[in-house]
Amino acid sequence: MAGFLPPITDTGYEIGWVTYSVNPKPGLPTGTEIRNQAWVKFDVDVFKPAPPNPDSEIPGYGPYRNTIDSGAPTSRVTPLSTLQTSKHFMVSWEGEDDEGGSGIKEYDVYVSDNGGPYVLWLTTSETSSTFSGEFGHQYSFYSRARDHVGNLEDAPSPLVPDATTMVGVADISVTPLSFDFGDVNVGVTSEKVFVVKNEGSAELTLGVIGSPSAPFSRVGGTCAEGSILGPSSTCTVIIGFSPSSTGDFSSSFEISSDDPDENPVGVGLIGRGVVVPDITVDPMAIDFGRVQVNGTSGVREVMVRNEGEGVLTIGDVTLSDGTHFTKGTDGCSGRGLLSGESCVIGVSFTPKSQGDKTGVLSIPSDDPDIGERLILVNLSGRGVVFLVEPGQGTLGTEVEIRGSGFGGKKGKVLVGSVVLKVTGWTDSSIHGVVSKAEPPGKYSVTVQPKGGSSLTEPEAFEIRAPEIVSVNPTEGSTGDEIRIEGNFFGSKKGKVYLEKGGFAKSCKVMGWGLTEVRFQVPKGLSAGPYTLILENKISRAEASFTVK
């Protein structure tokens, strides 16, 4: 059976095979499709299959299609900011193949350092990556894309980069670079804050922050190893000086960083351990209150004490106002106080006219603390034409007015516009009772002598509203007696109510005095919390009460 070639399958195909090559015509545009298929034609009709349908693809037999990709892709690096604050920064790029092309397979990204020749940075299918540069260097980038059939984008001509950026320079500064703690008392700690700042245009990363030797030490601050400071950012290092003995001391510490030209930075420290005085003054202010014009207050003492270890030398103690205030006994001026010793200065108030007066007692010393080299004690008082005691009250309050020039015959006294009930009158003393009163507030008191000129003292007496201090017990049932204690209830009997939800129930008052009121819990009240209201002829006061 020579020449017999039976089919392998029922289709009639695969009777034989043929190898051939196809070359596309030059100049075909991207996207042109080339289809090809071949078969063996025998001269024996019984084995001659029908030619394949070129529009119907049979797996493994064609027709085979190929698409022309004749153009290279294009790409570009995304523009970068002019300045980078970190030497590690992100670079990204993008690109596209010509229409109908095979698509971009990868990118070649080139970089130039400080205007030097471009070198291949990386070949990648990604569209971004982190570039690591150096502080103070300028970098330029361009890209070339390659498609899946090998078409490679031409390099730019002329070679103009897609993106250029500068990596800033970190620049550390420490303020101050040296510090003298001066004289510090033995056993006392003095602290200084050192400011670390990034004066550059790139991030500054701190390294090791050293510690000085004793008696200096690092006691705090916000700087830490690994801290990153952006441009103009700061952190602090706090150094303490704690001498345990007298003498001169010195030390230093260093701060390392990635500053390219100042690493590390050294900070110098000096200080002196001494025994120094420490002044204390008590009190720091004296209010003499009301004193009659041309009269004098009692002597008030100002104590000066040396709480330090060294001798405290006090200068000349002076008084700013010698007209209305008087310096009496002065056991301090020019004196040296040993540790723990004290001295006393006596001061009195002698107003020469009516009204508020102020003065200052100045106490200089050699205390090394700037704020304590001159201690100022503020003095104040009020000159009055007469004294009203007590200076506050309500209906029924007994009042004494002391002064001079009231005359021997009984005149009139006004509290505000209300007449005081006078119970006794001499040339230097008036006694009376508040029988009528203005609403709560401060009022002038006017003395009108018989046949003489009136004397007025502004805001000499204050009418007070009732003031509840305690309710005992704070809860009760019908008929229980409750005691209210407080001040300024008045001598005239007032009223007591229990109020709830806008309804007030009057209570039977069992007793009424200036400082105590007793009442009974009324009938007909439901259990629960109430507002207790005490009302006199002037005003009212409130407290909480519970009906059981």
Give a structural overview.
It is a single chain. By secondary structure, the chain is mostly beta strands. It folds into six domains: 1-68, no CATH class; 74-167, Immunoglobulins (Immunoglobulin-like, Sandwich), CATH 2.60.40.10; 172-274, Sandwich (Immunoglobulin-like); 279-375, Sandwich (Immunoglobulin-like); 387-463, Sandwich (Immunoglobulin-like); 467-547, Immunoglobulins (Immunoglobulin-like, Sandwich). Helices cover 0% and strands 51% of the residues. The protein has no helices and 46 strands. The strands form eleven sheets. The chain has an eight-stranded mixed β-sheet with strand order 39-41-44-43-42-45-46-40, with no helix packed on it. It has a five-stranded mixed β-sheet with strand order 4-10-9-6-7, with no helix packed on it. The chain has a five-stranded mixed β-sheet with strand order 12-19-18-14-16, with no helix packed on it. The chain is elongated and about 155 Å long. The model has no long low-confidence stretch (mean pLDDT 90).
